[in-house]
Specification:
The protein is built from ten helices and three strands, in the order αααααααββααβα. The chain has 302 residues and is mainly α. The protein folds into two domains: 199 residues, Up-down Bundle (Alpha-lytic protease prodomain-like), CATH 1.20.1510; 82 residues, Alpha-Beta Plaits, CATH 3.30.70.
């Protein structure tokens, strides 16, 4: 028996938020790119490159969200929710490649600081625009990222953009007040350093989903104890918990029940067990095999 409780984690609302965030990101990208060229700021160009990667990631996220919304069929019986995981994997790879490029350019600028000519005031204005836009995008995605690994990838990247804009503002103030040009290259290196941990965090979550490990925060023993508390349940074994993507856990188990329960009918017991899983552990898809007492020992003997 299965419980297919609907979720909203891949709905049109999330795609709308991603589209709005993409529009903001693309706009700021264009402003930072032009501003970086005019001001000669490597940090602004690095932040623009980061924004470009984020824009690409948001496009991937939108495509993956649309694919994930497709219904299940006979070939893909769980639907297409894993598309979100693959989208997040691509995002993580983009972030890693981007961080390496920024780091190389930043070191070269530090080695040849005299070659740089940075307009601090213009750099400051452009960075402030980016800070405001990233703050708006972060707010838009804050709720949806808790239930979707794909939206979470976009959320983490926007958070990195916000920090990057703050660093560029600090560097611009230093350059405008002291004329110390290496502040621009140092800011770009810090931006690169901020990208790597976020990419690795996203990769770990992707590998956790693809490896079908127990979702973070889920206690299998606690789930087993809840099921054992139900009237008529004698044992629970062969418990498996994994997730199709963030916020979509799957549960299977064999539940041993007394003959009296089976004689009265299994429907009420199954409904109660699945309601317990949905209410206490947010399990949207559960498969429970009921077995009469003594069946497990017979199966083991065979």
């Amino acid at each position: 028996m299965h419980d297919h409780a609907p979720t909203g984690i891949r709905g049109a609302g999330h795609r709308r938020l991603l589209a709005i965030s993409l529009t903001l990101t693309a706009t700021v990208l264009a402003v930072q790119l032009v501003g970086g060229i005019l001001s000669g700021s490597l940090a602004l160009l690095a932040d623009a490159a980061h924004m470009f990667a984020d824009a690409s990631a948001l496009v991937i996220a939108l495509i993956a969200a649309a694919v994930a919304a497709r219904p299940a069929d006979d070939r893909n019986t769980y639907g297409y929710r894993r598309a979100e995981v693959f989208g997040a994997l691509i995002n993580a790879i983009i972030l890693i490649v981007l961080s390496v490029g920024i780091a190389i350019e930043g070191v070269q600028r530090l080695l040849e600081p005299a070659a740089a000519d940075v307009d601090g005031p213009l750099m400051l204005v452009i960075a402030a625009v980016g800070l405001v836009a990233n703050a708006v995008s972060l707010w838009l995605l804050s709720a949806a990222q808790r239930t979707s690994i794909n939206v979470r990838g976009a959320y983490l990247e926007v958070m990195g953009d916000l920090l990057g804009s703050a660093l560029v503002i600090i560097a611009a103030i230093v350059i405008a007040t002291t004329g110390w040009l290496p502040a621009d290259a140092l800011a770009s290196l810090v931006i690169a350093a901020l990208i790597v941990p976020r990419a690795l965090t996203l990769l770990r979550e992707v590998f956790s989903v693809l490896g079908e490990t127990v979702p973070h925060g889920t206690d299998v023993q606690q789930i087993r104890a809840h099921l054992l508390d139900a009237d008529g349940v004698a044992d629970v074994h062969d418990v498996h918990v994994w997730q199709l993507t963030r916020g979509a856990p799957v549960f299977t188990a064999h539940v041993v029940v007394s003959p009296e329960v089976l004689a009265r009918g299994a429907g009420p017991l199954l409904a109660g067990l699945q309601s317990c899983l949905a209410e206490h552990f947010d399990v949207e898809h559960s498969t429970i095999q009921l077995e009469p007492a003594g069946h497990r020992e017979h199966h083991a003997h065979e």
